[in-house]
Predict the structure.
Amino acid sequence: MSLAFTNSCTLTRPRSFGQKEACKKLNISNNTSLLATPNSFVNGMRVCVDIRWIGTAGRSKQLPSSSKLQMSFSPNPRYKVAVLGCTGSVGQRFIQLLEDHPWFEVVAIGASSRSAGQKYSQACRWKQSTPLPNYVKNMEIRECKASQFPDVDIVFSGLSNEVAGDIEEEFAAAGKAVFSNAKNHRMDPDVPILIPAVNANHIGLIDYQRQRRGWDKGFIVTNANCSTTAMCLGLKPILDRFGIEALIVTTMQAISGAGYPGLPSMDIIDNVVPFIGGEEPKMESESLKIFGQLEMEKIVPASIQVSAMCNRVHVLDGHTECVSLKLKTRATPDEVIHSIDHFPSFTRSLKLPSSPERDVVYTDWIDRPQPRLDRHTGNGFTVTVGRVRECSVLDIKLVLFGHNTVVGAAGGSVINAELCVSKGIIAQKAKESAYAVSHK
Ligand SMILES: NC(=O)c1ccc[n+]([C@@H]2O[C@H](COP(=O)([O-])OP(=O)(O)OC[C@H]3O[C@@H](n4cnc5c(N)ncnc54)[C@H](OP(=O)(O)O)[C@@H]3O)[C@@H](O)[C@H]2O)c1
């Protein structure tokens, strides 16, 4: 995957590598060999390349700068990845989202010693609303030891908090890029809590993390807690435009947020449980790190007062959150809505495979967002904001909604990994791999 950053790439296969279009654009013969050397301009998966053509005598000739082309590329073959905690609520979502992923191929899966040695279809009680993908049915579950995963570059972790800390560290030390959903490493000063549309520049911490821990290739990137992710994404347009001094958030969180099998039915049917262990402090601390500024080798937390009240409700997937905000610059509800409507679609601009059309959308339905109606917006990757109105205590109040196991967990990790691939941060073992290049 180093085309954009270190290597040059010979475009030799006209159809698959887009040479035909390149030749057409440069007005040279179709079967001329082209040598494309990436220059320093890299914009996500688009890379501006200097094209030279190689004459019959093997000498190359630099074309004028006006003939530079924008090319897009994708890793070929795909990165080999593993899913740890593959049987759980988040793990299953990984298995679902990674089916036919253009950049990532699941070649290994891991879970506890209770499941290890069994085929996935035997060990897993599949709870997703799509069929269990064929690719994983007969895959054997491994124990979560790095030595058992020599064949992967990237590890997606849906491990429970009880075990995630040590296991994820062991895999990163063994050279894997680890994308974690657990709380264990989130607040480590050298580990980013990454949400690309909010704080993509925090991946700058990875270099420091590698230096500090003596890891040459591996690293850990975490997701926020699922309710924090929805809140930070939903509020980002408002933070950027008006600044936020203080906020009070009350959540109504889905059952799947508690993992599988989660709460006993006797506890949650016909009920609201006004307690989720550890959730309120997580929302209050992680949001400040996410909204913080990367300065040199650390994140300086944002200076916002945050008060969270978290409730478990009788909903399957998706967290709904009522938020009241005190803004730094006063704004009307219309101005707040305008900031959401005009929030740039950051992940889409990077052309990441999982990026939704919009990272955040505003709904003007008077009674939305609602879990049943809004959980599939942007395939679960988009946060929906609605009911923006004046608050008689603070300045503005609103309701936001995000899918807890997609954007708030597995999907968030997948898009984080896509961002890291697009920035050339992840080493790929299959160095000899070809790069599919196509003219954009
Ligand atoms: N659910 C959400 O919406 C959500 C959102 C954001 C973050 N998270 C976080 O994501 C992580 C996973 O959550 P979840 O809801 O998917 O939990 P879960 O349904 O309870 O799944 C836990 C997974 O961890 C595995 N595991 C347990 N003990 C293990 C051990 N000793 N060694 C190796 N694997 C072990 C389990 O495998 P077995 O089946 O073999 O026991 C299972 O695959 C947690 O850290 C959670 O806080 C969850």
Notes: The longest helix spans residues 226-242. The CA atoms of residues 60 and 423 lie 29 Å apart. The longest strand covers residues 33-43. Confidence is low (pLDDT under 50) at residues 1-17, 35-59, 64-71, 430-440.
